[in-house]
Amino acid sequence: MELVREIEFEEAYRKGFAFVDVRTKEEFEEFRIPRAYNVPLFTKEEREKVSEVYYRKGEKEARLYALEVVGPKLHRIVKEIKEIKEKEKNVVVYCWRGGLRSLAVAAICNLTGVHVFRLKGGYRAFRNYILKRMEEILKDKEVIVLYGPTGVGKTRLLRELKGEGYPIIDLEGLAGHRGSVFGGIGLEQPSQKMFDSLIWKELENLKDSPLIVVEGESRKIGKLFIPEPLWKKMNEGIKVLLELPLEERVKISMEDYGVSRFPKEVYLEALKRIRKLLGGEKYKEIKELIERKNYPKAVKELMVNYYDKLYSRSIPQTQIKLRSKSYGEGKEKVKELLDNYLWSSG
């Protein structure tokens, strides 16, 4: 009987197995298989020390040092994985590329009667799988891309529709960014690898839907890039433009961006990044508005003198325009459009 049984990610995922990441807490937080548990074999400092011993004294000495570090922790590690296994039934352990860390943990678990699998190829194999899988899921999908100038409430609208059961992928929510120079205020972005994983999981959830709906974005959201398979389908998709009156857009932006919740210095710092694009006189005017905390007027000026000009240059040609007097009316028009597509596809 083999001591450690390896399993491919696709099989483990299809069977609903739980994943245990044995990399450091820092590695786990940067990127991981969605919903995985973290039972680290080393701390960040311990792993760095093992690597140092390896480069100074060689592999044999590094392994002996690693055993010295890990030995006192083995009981706790096995106990934690046993508790996960009791809750989840089947467990697959993994590290970065199916190396010694996952091998060591899987071996000691199996030797002590806590039977687990080891992910073949580790996280790297999972990443290769999801990039290929995204292409497969999107191959025959219709993609509707919702555009609209800043303040029409695209993100809010799509999130509300998702809550009502429509096939929505909230790219800005997954990216932790609102897609503008002020879009990162109060938010934190995941790593690119984590972002890709989250998009894959959303696509898996919608694999049986004839279409998916996303917000029109540039390829880059903050520091992150939309994965190539989805970006390609967005460019090929049905493009819908939602339009609302300027005053309505100012009101929505004030709410969605949580304007006034943060110190004025936060907005002033972001404003500096577009100083050249605004021009000295307009920059000074908006800066003074923010300093006086006249946020509605500042938002309106930013829309007219920055966002709308930028948007008019970047928006692709749209096939469908939905003009509305209010957010509520716009939402109903989008729902009617999606219902027609879903009905005709079903």
Kindly describe this structure.
- With 346 residues, the chain is an alpha/beta fold.
- It has 2 domains: 5-129, 3-Layer(aba) Sandwich (Oxidized Rhodanese, domain 1); 140-345, Rossmann fold.
- 56% of the residues lie in helices and 12% in strands.
- The chain has 17 helices and 11 strands.
- Strands 1-5-4-2-3 form a 5-stranded parallel beta sheet. The protein has a 4-stranded parallel beta sheet with strand order 7-6-10-11, sandwiched between helices.
- Helix 2 (25-30) links the parallel strand 2 (18-21) and strand 3 (37-38).
- This is tRNA 2-selenouridine synthase.
- Keywords: Selenium.
- Residues 13-135 form the Rhodanese domain.
- GO terms for molecular function: tRNA 2-selenouridine synthase activity.
- Pfam families: AAA_SelU, Rhodanese.
In what range is the share of β-strand residues? 5-15%
| Structural domain tally | 2
Based on DSSP secondary structure assignment, what is the total number of beta strands?
11
Order of helices and strands: EHEHEHHHEHEHEHHHEEEHEHHHHHEH
The global form is globular
Helix proportion range: 55-70%
CATH top level class name of the largest domain: Alpha Beta
CATH fold call of the largest domain: Rossmann fold
Poorly predicted segments:
none
| Strand arrangement, major sheet | 1-5-4-2-3
CATH architecture of the largest domain: 3-Layer(aba) Sandwich
The Rg value, from CA coordinates, equals 25 Å
Distance between the termini: 50 Å
Q: Largest beta sheet, briefly?
A: 5 strands, parallel
Q: What structural category characterises the helix and strand content?
A: alpha/beta
GO molecular function, one term: tRNA 2-selenouridine synthase activity
Domain Rhodanese: 13-135
Protein name: tRNA 2-selenouridine synthase
Organism: Thermovibrio guaymasensis
